[in-house]
Structure formats: C-alpha cells, structure tokens
Design a protein that fits this description.
12 strands; alpha+beta; SH3 type barrels; 6 helices; five-stranded antiparallel β-sheet; single chain; 24% helix; 2 domains; BirA Bifunctional Protein, domain 2
Length: 248
C-alpha cells in the first residue's frame, strides 16, 4: 500500500509559525534545480513525489520510487555568515536526524560528516547545500518506506526497514522544517551536532578535492564545520568513508 500523498495544506497545518511556504508537485527532474530557477524568497519549499534527475553531493544521482521517499528543497537566508558556510550542512543534517528520531521515538539515527544520516552505519538520507545570492539552497532526500529490493546500494536503508514504522511524510516534512528554522535561523552552535555525529572517534578515509586520499582518526568537528583529524589536518570538503567502529 502506498503511503499518503504529499499535501502542502497538511504540512503547513502541522507547522508552527509562518516562515515556510510549501509547494507540492507530482514530478520534476530536480527540486533543487526547480527552486533555484524560481528566484526564491526565504522560506520557499518545493517537494515532489518523484525526481527523474535528482542529485546529491559530487553530482551523484539520487532516484527513488514514487511515494517511497521524501524529496524536497528549501531556500533560507540565515543570519549565519556565508563565509561560515561549512556549518550549514551540519545543522541541516542535525535537523533531519532530530526529526526522524523524534517521530520514531529513537536515538539511533546519527549524522555522518558532512551530509548523510545513518542508521546502524547504513545511509537513510543525504543532503546538498548550495549558496544562492544572499542565502542557501538545501536539498534533502530521505528513504521513508523504500523496500529492500528498491534500495540503490547495499549500504542504504529506509526508515521503515530500520524501525518497522511507516512515517507520514507530511508530518516528517513539517518536523524537519521546524528543526531547520530552529537550528539554522537560530544560528545554533555545533554542540548538539557533535553529540549525534557518528564520524567523531572513527578511523576514516577521506578523498580530498585534489584527489589525495587521507586515512586518519576523526577527532573533532570545529565550529566552522571543518572535520579535524588526529594529525591536526582540517578537512572542509571531502568524500568520507568510515573504516572502523567507534574506538575504545
């Protein structure tokens, strides 16, 4: 049985405050491209039942069966200086993890630096942040009811597979938007993110933009959003793989 259809009225009705303006469309190549080309104002949100050309970080494709995922993009103009842009994806990831944990009554959904949400080391959601004018575009894709056969890779999972719960996507979107407003417009520091970041304390492999591959232990996340390795190296952009479980 398909989950409920997305409804702008249902999402807005579940929100507190009037910051967000939600539009629902049936299908689009990419919500991120669509909102960018719409000349958005702060608080605009576009969500779609299906994306035919969705993408994530490093231009990776993101495709999900219709009605099985929550796919949306929003535009914000936060107080956070765009020179401190690295903090924004982490606060967005925190917002997604917090919302899923709240609605599933769990504490098992964690953040992987800089932009994935994991459950037992398997990816449930990913996000993409891009600057636009004075603000930032945030694109988020979450496997909500995706079945095992529908998963694109073996290291992925869905909220339903992880918890046995079929969340209402309208309620999930409303909860995430509330968290984004609280964390990003509220310009929170990263203390809460560090508590939920599974990367800290792990041995990782990071491919840097230069093509260099670095293996080290991830010691800390700086307030700028940079990942600090045990060697002292700070990574601001990199493709990360977790190599170990938490070190004792």
């Amino acid at each position: 049985m398909n989950p409920e259809v997305l409804s702008a009225q249902a999402v807005v009705g579940a929100l507190k405050g009037g910051y967000w303006r939600v539009s629902v469309i049936e299908e689009t190549p990419s919500t991120q491209t669509l909102i960018r080309e719409s000349k958005p104002t702060a608080g605009d949100v576009i969500t779609a039942e299906y994306q035919s050309a969705g993408r994530g970080r490093l231009d990776r494709t993101f495709e999900a069966k219709k009605y099985s995922a929550l796919l949306f993009s929003c535009y914000m103009e936060p107080e956070i200086q765009l020179t401190n842009f690295g903090k924004i994806p982490l606060l967005a990831g925190l917002s997604v993890a917090n919302a899923i944990n709240k609605l599933t009554n769990s504490s098992s959904f964690k953040c992987k630096w800089p932009n994935d949400i994991l459950f037992n080391n398997k990816k449930v959601a990913g996000l993409l942040c891009e600057t636009l004018g004075r603000g930032v575009l945030i694109g988020i894709g979450i496997n909500v009811t995706t079945s095992l056969e529908e998963l694109p890779v073996s290291h992925a999972t869905s909220i339903a597979l992880a918890t046995g719960q079929n969340l209402n996507r309208n309620e999930l979107l409303a909860e995430i938007l509330s968290e984004l407003d609280l964390n990003i417009n509220g310009n929170k520091d990263l203390r809460e993110y560090r508590k939920i970041c599974q990367t800290i304390g792990l041995e990782i492999s990071a491919e840097l933009p230069t093509g260099e591959v670095v293996e080290d232990v991830a010691d800390e996340v700086a307030e700028s959003g940079a990942l600090i390795l045990r060697s002292g190296l700070e990574i601001t952009v990199g493709d990360l793989v977790h190599l170990t479980s938490k070190l004792q």
